[in-house]
Amino acid sequence: xxxxxxxxxxxxxxxxxxxxxxxxxxxxxxxxxxxxxxxxxxxxxxxxxxxxxxxxxxxxxxxxxxxxxxxxxxxxxxxxxxxxxxxxxxxxxxxxxxxxxxxxxxxxxxxxxxxxxxxxxxxxxxxxxxxxxxxxxxxxxxxxxxxxxxxxxxxxxxxxxxxxxxxxxxxxxxxxxxxxxxxxxxxxxxxxxxxxxxxxxxxxxxxxxxxxxxxxxxxxxxxxxxxxxxxxxxxxxxxxxxxxxxxxxxxxxxxxxxxxxxxxxxxxxxxxxxxxxxxxxxxxxxxxxxxxxxxxxxxxxxxxxxxxxxxxxxxxxxxxxxxxxxxxxxxxx
Length: 333
Ligand SMILES: NC(=O)c1ccc[n+]([C@@H]2O[C@H](COP(=O)([O-])OP(=O)(O)OC[C@H]3O[C@@H](n4cnc5c(N)ncnc54)[C@H](OP(=O)(O)O)[C@@H]3O)[C@@H](O)[C@H]2O)c1
Fold this sequence. Notes:
There is one protein chain. This protein is an alpha/beta fold. It has two domains: about 5-115 and about 300-330, Medium-chain alcohol dehydrogenases, catalytic domain (Quinone Oxidoreductase, Chain A, domain 1), CATH 3.90.180; about 130-270, NAD(P)-binding Rossmann-like Domain (Rossmann fold, 3-Layer(aba) Sandwich), CATH 3.40.50.720. About 30% of the residues lie in helices and about 25% in strands. The chain is built from nine helices and 15 strands. It has helices spanning about 45-55, 120-145, 165-175, 190-195, 230-235, 260-265, 280-295, 295-300, 310-320, and strands at about 5-15, 15-25, 35-40, 70-75, 85-90, 105-110, 115, 155-160, 180-185, 200-205, 220-225, 240-245, 270, 305, 325-330. α1 crosses α9 (about 310-320), α2 (about 120-145) crosses α3 and α2 crosses α7. It is globular and about 65 Å long. The two termini are about 25 Å apart.
């Protein structure tokens, strides 16, 4: 049965970009084999780029953005899912090449979906969303120094872009893993916020700008870097022998001007994170770990709930770097 519903639709006709809340029908959803009633989506940096002007990411218009969502299966052509199943979607180019989650309904390929763990509500999974999943993937990359690589214990871990979505959750998770977290931020008024998340030490973003030497004094056993650019160059020069730098973001730039010394003299490992294409099996593992590692009371405090309307007013602040914490989107609000 065809349902009417609301969604954010971006368009780019005659090079004139537009975004609006529109009425659609479930028959407008052409991709995928599982129809999901969306309970929550979330605002991530990539969503903000796409809402702004397509971000050179979306190529077909009109288009429904939203790179993640949680919801309940309405109909499924794959017997792996049945009506009523609670599911989580992150990445796999949904919200980039396939219609996404800023919508009351979404239809996607069953292989992209993960069944939500029993103890993780649809609201909580999107409080983490793509940002939280990425923070967890980065944190497990750092933990690999102790386990997979059988290196020494991780002690000091740096998190850049610490007040952002990925950064905030990374500070929490790494603290829970037992590490001393050093948080880098450009927002001097957010020191208390970061301390409450568990950060032991707050550093000014300015300390990570400018030229760096081939090698500097090694201080970090692990790094979650959401910023890229000049700061990543400096971080690599400051990482301890066999330290792991999990690089996931480019909020500060895409170019790194590094050299081989950190890699061949100190065995530093630069571990790239692409949460979008991470297998559904790995995503399922991470969502189950989230239940154990995340203090959802704390995440609730750093989360703002937006309607589709609010979302259209909020995304520009994220592009300016002036948001903090997480923003969930309730399309039914
Ligand atoms: N690879 C993946 O799978 C993946 C997944 C999710 C996100 N990401 C990427 O990770 C990054 C963070 O995502 P997010 O959702 O956490 O975004 P966000 O909430 O906007 O956080 C980004 C943070 O970076 C800092 N920042 C902003 N502009 C900066 C600049 N010019 N120079 C240095 N720092 C700056 C700010 O933190 P402070 O003010 O505290 O410094 C800001 O809050 C983005 O680049 C995003 O595309 C990648």
